[in-house]
Amino acid sequence: AGGSAPVSRSSVASLVIFVNDINDHPPVFGQSVYRVNISEEVPLGSYVRGLSATDRDSGLNANLKYSIVSGNELGWFHISDGLDRETASQVVLNISARDQGVQPKFSYAQLVVTILDVNDNKPRFSQPEGYQVSLAENSPSGTELLVLSATDGDLGDNGTVPVGPSSVTPRRFFRLDPVSGKLSTISQLDREEQAHFSLQVLATDLGSPPLSSIARVNVSLLDVNDNSPVFYPVQYFAHIQENEPAGTYVTTVSATDPDLGPNGTVKYSISAGDTSRFQVHGQTGVITTKIALDREEKTAYQLQIVATDGGHLQSQNQAIVTITVLDTQDNPPVFSQGTYSFVVFENVALALDPDEGVNGVVLYTNDNLSISIPQPVFFKAASLEI
């Protein structure tokens, strides 16, 4: 037996074990909420903020892609459009980080973006298309027309809009209160002098540089019956032949009234004079005869015409119409007797004709004698038999 003991032998080998990664870790953001402030006037494509997440996995399981999950309804980020603080002053974006594993895992963070204001909005009046105001012309000084207001969507001084006392033109008739925006008159207005006013109101914000807007206020004055009819001229002179038929035209009087409508409608009437022989048309002022006139009865007439408007205001002055009746040959000479035999003393008239001029010339005739002498006829003869 004497055999030798067995000898133990060994060998060494290196065993490399590769642990294959499985996607068992989600991405992790460094913060759950990120915040950033940017101006609303930043150009397209501007950098906003960087976000980062880590993933303990490896390979594709740690290869992260980021996307905006929600909050970008306005489409501003990606960044595809300009920003507008007046549309949204703050935007909350939900950002996701997604790995590229076979069964990808997600992680989420919020990016709160505050939009800083710039003065990019002009003041806006409540009626940008303009204001229409009506006002009675006899309204007293200080009458309120309307209250103007303007708004501005910007913040702070950029959105502060004092209307300003010097922001209305013309300023001779109107005043604008800088605090309340009340527009009022500073003097009594006269429609007959100026019926319409077109005002420009300026609103300027306090931004730098300031922005302004202009609104137009159209003021129309309503008429009141504050004017009496006025004759021009005041005196009228007319001539008419005697024996003209009734309705013969004499003359036309005229009065004006600058008021509107019935307030400026003039009616005429005879206030004094012979209304049995003359009449005046109420609307036109035409004076006509009512009967035929006889110069031998009366040689001249005088009428007083008054004008009254539709508001019952009468003319302060009346029109004076002087009418002279012209003679016609309508009266033959008339002897008081058919035959005369007498002694004529000097300066004694034999026959009279009331007509004028050649119409009043008396012709004396018999078979042997014809005498034509203007009346009155006076003889310086001892005797005359006709």
From TrEMBL:
Single GO biological process annotation from the record: homophilic cell adhesion via plasma membrane adhesion molecules
Key word Membrane present: yes
Keyword Nuclease applies: no
Matches recorded under Gene3D superfamilies: Cadherins
Sequence ranges assigned to domain Cadherin in this UniProt record: 30-125, 127-231, 232-335
GO cellular component: cell-cell junction; plasma membrane
SMART domains hit by this protein: CA
Main localization of the protein described in the UniProt heading: membrane
UniProtKB keywords: Calcium, Cell adhesion, Membrane, Repeat, Transmembrane, Transmembrane helix
GO molecular function, one term: calcium ion binding
Superkingdom per UniProt: Eukaryota
InterPro entries registered for this protein in UniProt: Cadherin-domain_protein, Cadherin-like_dom, Cadherin-like_sf, Cadherin_CS
Entry's localization field: Membrane
Protein name per the record: Cadherin domain-containing protein
